[in-house]
Amino acid sequence: MILGFSIPTLLLGSVFVASFLVYFPYLAVAYARFQVGMDLGAPRAMFDRLPDYGKRATWAHQNSIETFAPYAAAALAAYATGVNTPAAGWAAVAFVGARALFSVAYLANVPPLRSLMFGIGQIAMISLFVQALQQIA
C-alpha cells in the first residue's frame, strides 16, 4: 500500500491520470487560441500567432502525447506481469507527479525544472519496464 492504494490500483490509476495530464497543457493552448482569435478553418496555422506561453503549452501538450504511450505500456506491463512492489508504486506516483510538474514548468518557462521532471518521468517509466521484465525472467 502506498498513499492508501494497492500497487495494482496505483499502476492502473496512474495510466488513467496520465491520460488526463496529456490535455492539461492544452487548456493553456485553447486559452491562447481564443486570445488571438480562433480559426477553426486552420487551427494549426494559428501557432505562429500564439503568445509565447501558448507556444510552450503546445510543445508541452505534444511532449505529453509522445510520452503517454510508452508510459502506459510500462505501467500495463508491470500490472500484467504481477509486479507488486513498493518500487513500482512509487514509480507510478513519481511519473504522474513529474509529468504534472513538467507541464507547469514548461508553461512557466523554467527549463531546468522541466528537464528534471522529464528525466524523473523517464526513469520511473524505465523502472516499470525493468520490473516487468524481471517478473517474467
What attributes characterize this protein structure?
5 helices, mainly alpha, elongated, 137 residues
Beta percentage is under 5%
Distance between the termini: 25 Å
Low-confidence stretches: none
Query: In one word, what is the shape?
Result: elongated
Mean pLDDT: 90
Compressed to H and E, one letter per element, the order equals HHHHH
Biggest beta sheet attributes = none
Which percent range fits the helix content?
Answer: over 70%
Which structural class do you get from the secondary structure elements? mainly alpha
Please report the total strand number as a whole number. Answer: 0
Oligomer: single chain
- Radius of gyration, in angstroms, nearest whole number: 17 Å
The total count of helices amounts to 5
Give your account of this protein's structure:
This protein has 137 residues and is mainly alpha-helical. 77% of the residues lie in helices and 0% in strands. The chain contains five helices and no strands. Helix 1 packs parallel to helix 4, helix 2 (24-36) runs antiparallel to helix 3 (52-80) and helix 3 (52-80) packs parallel to helix 5 (111-136). The longest helix is centred in the middle third of the chain and has 29 residues, at 52-80. The protein is elongated, with a radius of gyration of 17 Å. The mean pLDDT is 90.
Q: Could you give a quick summary of the protein structure above?
A:
The chain is mainly alpha-helical. The protein contains five helices and no strands. Helices cover 77% and strands 0% of the residues.
